[in-house]
Design a protein that fits this description.
By secondary structure, this protein is an all-alpha fold. The chain has 4 helices and no strands. Helix 2 runs antiparallel to helix 3. It is rod-shaped and about 105 Å long. The model has no long low-confidence stretch (mean pLDDT 87).
C-alpha cells in the first residue's frame, strides 16, 4: 500500500500539530499550577511579614513606658499612643485578611487581650507623670 506524497505530508503535519497542541495544553496546565502556587506563597509571605511587624510593633510599643521610668520625661505619652495605635492597626489588618479558622481567631483574640493588658500597664506607668 503506497501513499502518495500529499498524504505523507498531510499526516506528518497533522502529527506535528497534534504534538504541538498537546505540549501547549501541558504547558498551560503547568502555568496555571505554578500561578496558584506562587499566589499561595505570596499570601504566606505576607502573613509572615505582618506577624513579624506585629511582633516588633508590640515590643516597641512598651518602650515609651520603660523610657519614662528611666528618664522621667512626660513626652513619652505621645510616642506610646502612636505606637499602640500601630499595633491595633496591624491587629485589625491581620484579623480582616488572614484569619481562616476558629483556632486562628482564638489566637488573635489572645494576642489582642495581651496587648490590651500591656496597654493598660503602659497607661498606668505613664499616668504617674500626671
Amino acid at each position: 500500500m503506497a501513499f502518495n506524497i500529499r498524504t505523507r505530508i498531510t499526516v506528518a503535519i497533522g502529527v506535528g500539530v497534534g504534538l504541538l497542541a498537546a505540549s501547549i495544553t501541558v504547558s498551560l496546565y503547568q502555568y496555571v499550577q505554578i500561578a496558584r502556587s506562587t499566589q499561595a506563597i505570596e499570601t504566606v509571605a505576607e502573613e509572615i511579614e505582618l506577624a513579624s511587624r506585629l511582633q516588633l510593633a508590640m515590643s516597641v510599643a512598651m518602650m515609651p513606658a520603660n523610657d519614662y521610668l528611666i528618664t522621667g520625661r512626660a513626652g513619652e505619652r505621645g510616642k506610646f499612643n502612636r505606637l499602640t495605635g500601630e499595633v491595633e492597626k496591624l491587629l485589625g489588618r491581620i484579623g480582616g485578611h488572614f484569619i481562616l479558622n476558629e483556632e486562628e481567631r482564638a489566637l488573635l483574640d489572645r494576642i489582642r487581650e495581651g496587648h490590651e493588658r500591656l496597654n493598660a500597664m503602659g497607661e498606668e506607668i505613664l499616668a504617674l507623670s500626671d
